[in-house]
Amino acid sequence: MKTVNxxxxxxxxxxxNRYRHLQGWSDSPLTDKGIADAKNAxxxxxxxxxxxxxxxxxxxxxxxxxxxxxENQHPQDEKEIEMISAFREQFFGYFEGANSVxxxxxxxxxxxxxxxxLNAMTAVHGIKVAIDIWKDVDPFHDAESYDEIVTRLKQGxxxxxxxxxxxxxxxxxxxxxxxxxLTSIFNDQIDVSHSPRNGSITELQLTEAGGTIECxxxxxxx
Length: 222
Fold this sequence. Notes:
The chain is about 40% helix and about 15% strand. By secondary structure, it is an alpha/beta fold. The chain has two domains: about 1-90 and about 170-220, Rossmann fold (3-Layer(aba) Sandwich); about 90-145, no CATH class. Helix 2 crosses helix 3 and helix 5 (about 120-125) crosses helix 6 (about 125-135). The chain is globular, with a radius of gyration of 17 Å.
């Protein structure tokens, strides 16, 4: 049975991360810490010979992928790094670029008896409920639902799986919420009420029959 080993890395810290602004399909540059995050991930993965390298089509993911590749003992030509929109972050619609703390409070205070945040809602009600609220409250209803994100995520996995050979190692530079959703799909026992850190690594072993999460959000060498 064909088995492909995925290494999902959350991009390095950005200005919007630092200033607590919602950053789904919008973008902002990596900070100095973000560059360090990317290089550290590259060092953790330096000895892995990646058959393919993918990233979302956001600048923060593209640059993170390039820094990781540069640290690798078997680097690929940068032209070989493929950008895939299916691995984008959740789209926040009307709320893109807004202050995340203030916006989450307004969205979740009517739904949660604990601290009204995405993390708290996820811990109490699950990540699907926490994400679907964004689409319900968005006055344009442009924000993505959980099912919409899962659909494109699976399309990205299907595409990259078909490109790989049995035993291949594949790097995907993506985003915090998407990695949480990925993890919940393949192991609903893992706590995804907190986002993986910038530059952290989540490992997925995927076969035609299903997948196994080997680790979630690690930031140190195995």
